Please model this.
Amino acid sequence: MTQGVRVGVSIPPAGFASHDDATAYVHGAANADLDHVFTADHVSFFDGRGMDGLMKVSWLAGLHPTIGVYVGVYLLALRHPVAVARQVATLAEQAPGRLTFGVGVGGEDRHEMEVVGVDPSTRGRRTDEALDVLRPLLAGEAVDHHGEFYDAPDVSIRPAPTPPVPVTVGGRSDAAARRAGRRGDGWLASWCSPRRFAEGVHIAEQAAAASGRDAVAWRHGYQIWVGLGDTPTEGAALLAPAMEKFYGAPWAAFERYSPVGTPADIVEWLRPFMDAGAVDFNLAPIAATDAERVAGAAEIRRLLVD
Model:
């Protein structure tokens, strides 16, 4: 079974100039009927940039009483899962039903893992083991775990989140899709075609069935940058330099999977993903102003849901 379609908007790539700007942005997203705001997570990304994703969404949740928040995605392998379970449970207690917790293995900057003593080649196995500790703790179960990477002797986390916090798994690989099926509530994809997305959803749901998980409330999703403009050319002119600055790579590396133009143009590009099982769309819109980012994302939501 799946959930209803939800559309969220990222925080601006450069962050907020002030607390007032952040408050206006989050309230604008809520007033526009967007379902959530989302952010990424990095300890020290390339030149030292980053943010702690859970701390950031905790702050965002405090700016508005009801809007959802989504971490897309948290580098779980860089932290101890018991401490993360406490952080998630704390936010869930203060903002019940509002958090979606996406996790991923990272790896774009291998040095980011080395600075906290993690061998990058172990990040997949670490994430699997961490999820095997985290998920039962968040379900209110007692855990006594002694594994390859983590010890969690005789521990519980109370109170358990009510309602439960959905845990999605990001990544492009078959391994990520299988991880989502075995240990998550959905696969959060990016940088792929609708055909590949449908394939990943199938892999995830097959892995779930093989693991005896036959009643998952699936929250498969797609996370994507979009360029908003009156024409595709105008949208690309805004999106290309923003992505080049953020990733330090040429626009040609992203163009294939970065829809541009009016909200209707972008919905036409996204709809096949919805047809293939996506219910969460995390949009990182680039537009002339922050208000236009929010308005464009809201119109995309309206067109997708209608």
Observations:
- The first strand starts at residue 6 and ends at 10.
